[in-house]
Amino acid sequence: MDPLGRAQLLEFLKKEFSAENLSFWEACEELRYGEQSRINEIVDSIYQQFLAPGATRWVNIDSKTMERTLEGIKTPHRYVMDDAQMHIYMLMKKDSYPRFLKSELYRNLLAEAVIPPETKKRVFPFMRKQRHSSPSP
């Protein structure tokens, strides 16, 4: 959800030659939450960019997922890419993202982070815990 964090992840993925995975995931999000009138256009764009033979930003999904997705795009709808999107998400979750968390890019991002003050509020502010000092031994 953090735009700066996502941009840093994309930079990391570019260095790892797998930026197409995040781009595919984002395109699928656009399909899911975008305008109803653009569904056919977005499905076609996703297919051409990421799934078609010889696609410039081809993503690696297993054959069963590819079969289901290709069958589904014959009648495009908002959720037609869900299986393929989940497959790519799991690849990133189990492989790319853990490596990103260990990267220097991420360490630098953390070092520059501004930590907001505590924002958690008590449900009932009048029920504050009394602070008692414990007797020293």
From TrEMBL:
The keyword ATP-binding does not apply. Residues 1-110 form the RGS domain. GO terms for biological process: negative regulation of signal transduction; regulation of G protein-coupled receptor signaling pathway. It comes from the Eukaryota. One of its GO terms (molecular function) is GTPase activator activity. Keywords: Signal transduction inhibitor. The keyword Ribonucleoprotein does not apply. One of its GO terms (cellular component) is neuron projection. Pfam families: RGS (PF00615). This is RGS11 protein. It comes from Odontophorus gujanensis.
